[in-house]
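Hey, can you fold this one?
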Amino acid sequence: MPGPLLETLRGTNVSKRPIWLMRQAGRYLPEYRALRAEKGGFLELVYDSEAAAEITIQPLKRFGFDGAILFSDILIVPYAMGQDLKFLAGEGPHLSPKLADAALETLEAVPERLSPIYETVRRVKANLSPEVTMLGFAGSPWTVATYMVAGEGSRDQHVTREYAYRDPQAFQAIVDSIIAVTVEYLSGQVEAGAEALQLFDSWAGSLSPSQYERWVIAPNAAIAAEMKRRHPLAPLIGFPKGSGEKLSAYARETGVDAIGVDETIDPLWAAKTLPEGMPVQGNLDPLLLLSGGEELDRQARYVLDAFAERPHVFNLGHGIGQTTPITNVERLIEVVRAWGN
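Sure. Predicted structure:
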């Protein structure tokens, strides 16, 4: 019998809303900070399957969420494709060589870099209650490509957007390579025990309409089609942050099973506009969870009420902030659990 999260993602409008939070395993938890201090840097934690499994399970022990989201990073895919990956204190991730300066063909794939992630999934799944859903994930091709081309994150993805306009054939080759590795990576996660998957397209909102069609919708549709062929029982959540009115086209055209809605979208608009019966996930502003108080309660109920007529997974519009008080998370869970009573 699937748990409430998996049941919802498969299209059932369950009365008790399942809840998990993006970045629920992370720096706001004292137990995470303690383990990281003991083990070392972020990438070292990701590649220590025992520690990564413990981190994945930490928020479930504390809060009783309905889903466990794999502790890893979207840049594991370019790392497996042959780029070097470092997380620098105060600067974030850096990939080298950056593909703005080096040809894709110069990279030598290291597929064994994916294996420890599968071991983390196996370890977590072995320790989950049957009603808790194991969630795997990957970055969507556009977002992953922005890091591969520029070598680091940026506010407007200007280097990669210009590269895609200037040499669309070369950029298409990068995206196609990411698609191929991502399909294998997600398949490996399912084979290791993941029951549902999420594609994070954190930088989807930076693109013009024509670029959005080519670099967001088409690649995600290719991944969704192949995953549906290989693993039809593992629902795929698409989360194209910042898509605005383009979210409707993404939901209709990519073939994902559920759609993640960020905090900039009015949930009433989403409830009316997205395909009928399609499961939705979201979309409380993470800053509301940071600030807390009665407004947190009111806005959480607004989201719940807006999506009352369709399958809905309660979540944030993006990741939980590292300074979020634990008491606010506890309060949010109380509101979600009490809704509908």
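The first helix runs from residue 4 to 9. Let me know if you want another pass with a different chain boundary.
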